[in-house]
Write the structure tokens for this entry.
Amino acid sequence: MGADPTELLRQRGLRVTAQRLAVLRAVADTPHVTADLVAESVRGEIGSISVQAVYDALGALTENGLLRRLEPAGSPARYERRVGDNHHHLVCRGCGRMVDVDCAVGEAPCLTPAEELGYEIDEAEVIYWGRCPECVEEKGTT
Ligand SMILES: [Zn+2]
Ligand SMILES: [Zn+2]
Ligand SMILES: [Zn+2]
């Protein structure tokens, strides 16, 4: 993960562009960031970039395993740099805050369905929904 981003792109056979590097950096700085926020931070760094170009970069980086894409219900897609470790997420129903949590099992898939129905299963997507400590506290006092 600490590897040089330029090297990471080359290893995946991706052309190294200022846009892709800036997108990678933006996601590394803010885990679980949305495309809109990535666009904002990339604009701050390298000047104007179209939203489409941001989506293209996010798509290429995700396809090549440099980013992980998450889509919790009711939220736009979010991106993160922490890939390949089968960690899961806690999402607050109150404020929408999302945090990482290690998988209690480790290896994917960490859950087994009652029947596999002939599928070769490689992952169980787990999202824990609830309320974050701040929202729990707020509710307690009102
Ligand atoms: Zn909350
Ligand atoms: Zn995460
Ligand atoms: Zn798990």
Q: What stands out?
A: The chain has five helices and six strands. The pocket of zinc ion (ligand 1) is lined by residues 92, 94-95, 97, 131-132, 134-135 (CB under 6 Å). The chain has a mean pLDDT of 93. The radius of gyration is 17 Å.
